[in-house]
Amino acid sequence: MSDCIFCKIINGEIPSKKILENDQFLAFHDINPVTKVHALIIPKNHVANIAHLTEDNASYVDGLLPFVRDVAKELGISADGYRLVLNTGAKAGQTVFHLHAHLLGGQELGWPEA
Ligand code: AMP
């Protein structure tokens, strides 16, 4: 989508601190980290959020978690633990409407969030 900032990151129109990519996903550092390690993982094809997934995006479900595992390894947070957050919709705090998972770690994380 032409006005989507994450699509612009994928296309190289906006710079990002890239961590890892494959044919389906891109991982890069969040510009405004809320934890010591804060990465974003996005599909390369635009979809607004989980609520908009269709059969065409079905492979995201299979592909996402193994990619997250590899990103966490790359960031060195696999052993200590990390959290994956997918804000879905404005009331859940989603501000960028291109599906993304926040990978949070590098420190002790509190729970629950509300
Ligand atoms: P959300 O509030 O779940 O939609 O998360 C959007 C995230 O995108 C926020 O954590 C922002 O800090 C992050 N963000 C926005 N623009 C950029 C950018 N150009 N590069 C990296 N992260 C960004």
Characterize the structure shown:
The protein is globular, with a radius of gyration of 14 Å. The chain has one domain (5-105): 2-Layer Sandwich (HIT family, subunit A), CATH 3.30.428. It is α+β, with helices and mostly antiparallel strands and 114 residues long. Strand 2 and strand 3 form a beta hairpin. Strands 1-2-3-5-4 form a five-stranded antiparallel beta sheet, covered by helices on one side. The model has no long low-confidence stretch (mean pLDDT 95). Helix content is 22%, strand content 22%. The chain contains two helices and five strands, in the order αβββαββ. Adenosine monophosphate binds at residues 5, 14, 16, 30-32, 40, 87, 93-96.
SSE inventory with pairings:
Layout: H1 5-11, E1 18-21, E2 25-29, E3 37-43, H2 58-75, E4 82-85, E5 101-105
Antiparallel strand pairs: 1-2, 2-3, 3-5, 4-5
The structure holds adenosine monophosphate (AMP).
Number of strands: 5
Bound molecules: adenosine monophosphate
Helix and strand string, N-terminal first?
HEEEHEE
Strand fraction: 15-25%
| CATH level-two architecture | 2-Layer Sandwich
What keywords describe this structure?
114 residues, HIT family, subunit A, 2 helices, globular
Q: What's this entry about, in short?
A:
The protein is built from two helices and five strands. With 114 residues, it is of the alpha+beta class.
